């Protein structure tokens, strides 16, 4: 619902801008000048300052011209590209038909519609990257994640022989910062600011609409698939930052458990916990489980240390949609909707 509303706002804003320009043209009497202004207003807000140098998580990247054919090797970063109307022609994908997470192509569900509208082609499975496929698409920019399950950072040198490569590490970054960098790299700065402002406005609405339980702390976490444990979200996690922006008191993870990073090596946003350590590693009065697919909810219900926890007995367990597993504009808006529904 948030996605539809947002898309409507974009169209309405452009339509309103067109009406305003038309009215000014009728009143000014200078038809030629105002026709030029109308064309400018109706055109894309793409920046024309090229070449430009971008600070990335792999050093500086200089782009000579605005990208027109972008290949995303990161399923996670594709959503942020689509949100700013960047010209994505192909994206990597993950396991298909995972309810609450991916569609029939393996794209994340929150941006499926946007990908269809943009005619995004499948690039490769995250499990089986194919450099030849990227080369055949003749991109002028390739986007790579430095970390995470969809990272192809080890292929950067090969990919650079095809096109300039933009490397970003989303693991400890806000989706807004990622979106701003992508906006700068694609000449879509105005679109990036627009979606960030939409999110900020919605966050303020949610803050006004909900009641945060007094004197209650929160532990946010993710349930791993296959019964392998949970990932406690640190203060560096983008999900945690949203909760803190809203006003939740997110508690700390005990220091003696922070050494267990088997599923989060070199990542500042998560600490992996075996189920037997879940209660001690998640000491908050309230548990907020992000990325909760139906399978994750079933795992919770069938794992006694979780289902029999005091938090669950007190009714203080809240599940965020599966799509919130990885945050971009679309899933961040979904997370706000879910928080409002849980705490209003």
TrEMBL record:
Chain ranges of the Fe/B12 periplasmic-binding domain: 69-344
InterPro entries: ABC_transptr_periplasmic_BD, Bact_iron-sidero_bind
Location in the cell: Cell envelope
UniProt entry keywords in alphabetical sequence: Signal, Transport
UniProt key word Signal: yes
Segment forming the signal sequence: 1-31
Highest taxon above the source species: Bacteria
UniProt GO cellular component terms: outer membrane-bounded periplasmic space
Pfam families given in the database record: Peripla_BP_2
GO annotation, biological process: iron coordination entity transport
NCBIfam families assigned: PRK10957.1
Family as reported in the entry's similarity comment: Belongs to the bacterial solute-binding protein 8 family.
Name of the protein in question: Ferric enterobactin ABC transporter substrate-binding protein
Source organism: Corynebacterium suranareeae
């Amino acid at each position: 619902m948030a996605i539809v509303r947002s898309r409507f706002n974009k169209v309405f804003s452009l339509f309103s801008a067109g009406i305003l320009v038309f009215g000014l043209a009728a009143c000014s009497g200078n038809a030629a000048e105002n026709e030029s202004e109308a064309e400018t207003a109706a055109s894309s807000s793409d920046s024309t300052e090229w070449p430009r140098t971008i600070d990335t998580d792999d050093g500086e990247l200089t782009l000579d011209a605005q990208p027109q054919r972008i290949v995303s090797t990161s399923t996670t970063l594709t959503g942020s590209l689509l949100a700013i109307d960047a010209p994505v022609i192909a994206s990597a994908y993950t396991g298909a038909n995972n309810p609450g997470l991916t569609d029939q192509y393996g794209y994340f569900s929150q941006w499926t519609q946007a990908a269809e509208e943009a005619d995004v082609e499948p690039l490769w499975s995250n499990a089986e990257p194919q450099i030849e496929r990227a080369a055949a698409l003749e991109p002028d920019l390739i986007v790579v994640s430095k970390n995470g399950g969809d990272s192809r950072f080890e292929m950067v040198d090969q990919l650079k022989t095809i096109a300039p490569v933009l490397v970003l590490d989303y693991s400890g970054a806000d989706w807004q910062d990622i979106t701003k960098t992508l906006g700068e790299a694609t000449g879509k700065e105005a679109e990036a600011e627009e979606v960030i402002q939409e999110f900020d406005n919605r966050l303020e609405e949610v803050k006004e609409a909900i009641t945060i339980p007094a004197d209650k702390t929160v532990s946010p976490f993710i349930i791993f698939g296959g019964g392998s444990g949970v990932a406690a979200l640190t203060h560096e996690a983008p999900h945690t930052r949203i909760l803190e922006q809203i006003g939740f008191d997110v508690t700390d993870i005990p220091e003696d458990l922070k050494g267990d990073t088997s599923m989060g090596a070199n990542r500042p946003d998560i600490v992996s916990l075996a189920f037997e350590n879940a209660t001690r590693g998640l000491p908050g009065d309230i548990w907020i489980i992000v990325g909760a697919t139906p399978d994750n909810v079933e795992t919770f219900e069938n794992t006694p240390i979780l289902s029999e926890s005091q938090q669950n007995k007190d009714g203080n367990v809240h599940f965020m949609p599966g799509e919130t597993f990885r945050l971009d504009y679309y899933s961040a808006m979904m997370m706000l909707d879910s928080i409002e529904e849980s705490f209003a």
